[in-house]
Design brief:
388 residues, mainly alpha
Amino acid sequence: MTESFDQPVAYSAIAREWGRIGVIGFGGPPAHIALLRKLCVVDRGWLSAHEFEDAVSSTNLLPGPASTQLAIFCAWRLRGRVGALIGGFCFIVPGLVIILALSALFLAAHPPTWVKGAAAGAGAAVPAVALNAAISLIPASWRRVAATHDVKLRWLAYFAVGVVAAATIGPYLVLVVVGCGLVEVTSQRGSVEGSGRFGMFLVPATSTPILAGGLAALCWVAFKVGALSYGGGFVIIPLMQHDVVVTYHWMTGTQFLNAVALGQVTPGPVVQTVSVVGYAAGGLGGGLLAACVAFAPSFVFVLIGASHFDRLRSDARIQAFLTGAGAAVIGAIAGSALPLGRELTHLWQLSILGLAAVWLLALRRGVVPALLICGALGALATVAGAPS
């Protein structure tokens, strides 16, 4: 793809419009894609429908937060690298400011009772949100599968491996995901030729954990979220949970549930959850550092690779890799519901989890209203005397 700005869009317009989407973009990637399409294709005619669909397809091939990369890429198409930097920054910052402010409230040493209750209520819904996210991703991934029995069986196997990995060996999930992708590359080609260098690039980057704590560990966790996660924002949960709760003890399991809920109910990228983790690990500076490390790869991928996205989409090895890795990621998101559910500490939270499951899975209603309703129920429960 080449940069296209026959009638250059003003930088101020990019800042204003991308910032507006960053403020009103509740609901995660589907909402962001819809808002960007309405802006760039329907309302302003800055991009054709075909160009926008190509942009969606291209950014979905990249690791990291796809809707953030789409926002950066659309701005790049309009005004090149400077436009990409402005658009991406304005898309990310509003949600970052809001989530850091909420982090200070919810992670305070002695928050008000109603705040603790709201956090416990919203957190109780998170396992259902994870399962709902996995279910919503299945149709698109299944459509990637060739109409052959063997490929479909492998897809099911990758999905099952992802479920088990997320429920049991969370810290090594990236290796599992990459491994499933490479197995599918090899299976579709019938040999390892052409996939060796691809695998050598990914595996060392994912196989060396940082054992020490401190800022180095925080940067590693944020980097995994921003550069090594495949399949959408919710995969950050199984990627981070063990590191955050067990390895480095930055948060309790309950606080991690709250962090995930905050990432869902605030506008902008779901990956903002990593900022809550950073705040817990190192205060405001830690939150800003985690956000910078997590979002930096998205800018790098677009600024360096955008002109090659057409070739990336047509590469059969990339498509095969994403068939295997994508199925494993969806399984991992579903599997993360198990360790998340184990973090619920009060019986009344199980009732809220049941209500959230009905709302999301049976009634097929929205995630943000579910979390807000569950938070309100939790606040009412604790004010009425329930433990928090």
